[in-house]
Amino acid sequence: MNQRVKRYLVDAMSGMAQGLFASLLIGTIIKTLGQQLLRLNENFVFTFLVDAGNFASESHVVGAAMAIGIGYTMKVPQLVLFCLAAVGAAANVSGGAGGPLAVLFIAIISAELGSLVSKKTKLDIIVTPLITILSGALFTILTASYIGKAASAFGNLIVWATTFQPFVMGMIISVLVGVALTLPISSAAICAALGLTGLAGGAAVAGCCAQMIGFAVMSFKENRVGGLLSQGLGTSMLQMPNIIKNPKIWIPPILTSLITGPIATCIFALEMNGPAVSSGMGTCGFVGQIGVITGWYSPSETAILHGASAISPTFFDWLGLLLVSFILPAILTYIFGSILRRIGWIKEGDLTLSE
Prior knowledge:
Layout: H1 3-40, H2 44-57, H3 59-73, H4 78-95, H5 99-117, H6 124-164, H7 166-182, H8 187-194, H9 198-218, H10 220-232, H11 240-245, H12 251-267, H13 287-297, H14 301-305, H15 315-342
Helix pairs in contact: 1-2, 1-3, 1-5, 1-8, 1-13, 3-4, 3-5, 4-5, 4-6, 5-6, 5-8, 6-7, 6-9, 7-8, 7-9, 7-12, 9-10, 9-12, 9-15, 12-15
């Protein structure tokens, strides 16, 4: 892979996603936990949880965390890295609902410009922050709102199309986001940048789970419990070296996502109304499922813009979440995998993870 492509699309997007996890995602979980506990009893501890969650999920904090994550994975000089906090905060606030995409572009540009002058003069402590922050501020003023609006508009189109045509869009989103999760790019960052919530977010969750649980179960014969946990709770990206050797091993999880996507949208009306980043996480640390649950009780701002509101989940909602996230991916991928093993498309050792 071209080094620049890897630096800007793989490394930077991965850092952005980690920044989102460390701010918006964990903040939303903490806040939702506090809100639910406050229903039982009002006290300082539960109120503190809500306040702590609010602090972590504020727009400028999230922007700063994303930009620092981007800079860290790009391995920029320390002084540039610290300055990116201001750049990310400005870009995320100015970008509105599409702020994450604005942060991605602007943080990369200002990080590169800051790196160009870093340690080149005796006034590095002044020159490097000056270039990094001023370039970030300039690009924020000139482009952030437009990038944010474009990303938000495209995300809104996907959400609307999924509501209008849940069967077809359920399949498309489930397959594409699931494939992105297994590829060495960040499906979570893509979902966050586009603000995928609602039924579209639910289809994305289905596709990611099909890949993670699918590969974990399908390769249990080769990788046993360690592989089950590393793929089912970690990432299906571990199978990329094997996919390159034999692309046919990707067929069962993709077929599964073709089925579970429409089941999520058409039968269970599974919606992801928590942080959009959760849509691209699948079962990694159960972040996808936690996102769905937090969205039931406390929808994110992006989800509210798409018309979401808090609900009291029924047994049918919980059943849908369990079936789409765990049970159906395990059963369907095992069946498809067994068929491909029987006809010789998947051979012994094709799914073995490297040490």
